[in-house]
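Journal club side-thread
Mid-discussion, someone asked how the predicted structure for our own chain would compare to the paper's figures. Pasting it here so we can look after the session.
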Amino acid sequence: MLIKILGTGCAKCNRLEQLTREAAAELGIAADFEHVTQMEQIMAYPIMTTPALVVDEQVKCSGRIPSKDELRSWLS
């Protein structure tokens, strides 16, 4: 599983990455994480605001930090 956090490195982006890593660990999922900070790469996805979460090239959310329950449901 490839998980991408889209964002320039702000506190919200970092929090989203931390929560997503925790959710993956709780589910016992082996995932590769990538923090995409280059605006050109971020703009390749259909999002309007960051932070955004992309799981296996599918945008799961953008512009907010989802709950851990939401994260677990998207990862399982």
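Post-session note: The mean pLDDT is 96.
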